[in-house]
Amino acid sequence: MRKIISIQGPMAGGKTTLAKRLENQLKNFQVIYENPYPIVQSRNNLKLDIHTLEGFIKNQQLFIEAEIKRFNHFYNENILFDRGPEDIEFYTLFFPIANGYSWDIEYYLKDELNRLRKCRSDLIIYLDTEFETLERRKQNDLTKRRSSFDQNMKLYEYEKDWYKQFNTKFIDVNEKASIEVEKSVLENLTNNNFLKK
Fold first, then answer.
1. Which of residues 154 and 78 earns the better pLDDT score?
2. 16 three-class SS
3. Helix (H/G/I), strand (E/B), else coil: 181
4. Mapping DSSP to helix (H, G, I), strand (E, B) and coil, where does residue 124 land?
5. Segment 151-175 mean pLDDT
6. What's the half-sphere exposure (Cβ side, CA atoms, 13 Å) at 60?
């Protein structure tokens, strides 16, 4: 039976760095990296404004459909996601709240959310990071634009509580080098029977 692990956490929290390190360790897992850019390009082509109800609904329909396809494409394989389906659901529900919009997302995206909720990770590794750490990493990493960093920080205050409802292991990554984070995660995976001892 396949196993699905997702790495979650805020922007600049170290998700992709961790996924790349784990790719060398988890030989029986396929690592799938987040790539939102094709959908963002589609959004731009359609001239969708996600700060309007209509634009946001259409945008999330694009993202949810892509995530369901991504999840089911690797049906028989063990997968490690750099952001998993729970992240799409979180953004869909909490973007309006974080921006002060009183949109009934559960009503407008009822069918899409029901389908998305059938896609679940068996284990979520959440990289728990203080805001100051994220800000420092953003400023020091010139390899990524992180143009949506401020928008993501609006969501950050809701994110950790959201993931508590799932089988989530929270890893404190403040003041930790990449190799220390990798070691902590591998220990967690072993203790939770995702890796052999």
1. 78
2. helix
3. helix
4. strand
5. 85
6. 28
Taking only the tens place, the pLDDT of each residue in 88-132 is 999 999 999 999 999 999 999 999 999 999 999 999 999 988 767
3-state secondary structure 97-120: HHCCCCCCHHHHCHHHHHHHCCCC
- Amino acid symbol at 105: I
What domains are defined for the chain? 4-191 (3.40.50.300)
Write down how long the chain is: 197
Confidence of residue 73 (pLDDT cuts 50, 70, 90): confident
| pLDDT for res 140 | 62
Q: Which of 21, 11, 7 is nearest to 141 (CA)?
A: 11
Pairing status of strand 79-82 against strand 4-8: parallel
Per-residue pLDDT of 6-31, as tens digits, reads 999 877 778 888 999 898 888 888 99
Scanning the structure block, which residue is given the tokens 């869909």? Answer: 92
For the four alpha carbons of 111, 112, 118 and 123, in that order, the dihedral sign comes to negative
> In sequence order, which ranges of the chain are alpha helices (DSSP H)?
15-23, 37-46, 53-73, 85-98, 105-108, 110-116, 131-140, 149-163, 178-191
Please give the C-alpha separations between residue 43 and each of 39, 47, 48, in angstroms, as whole numbers. Answer: 6, 6, 5
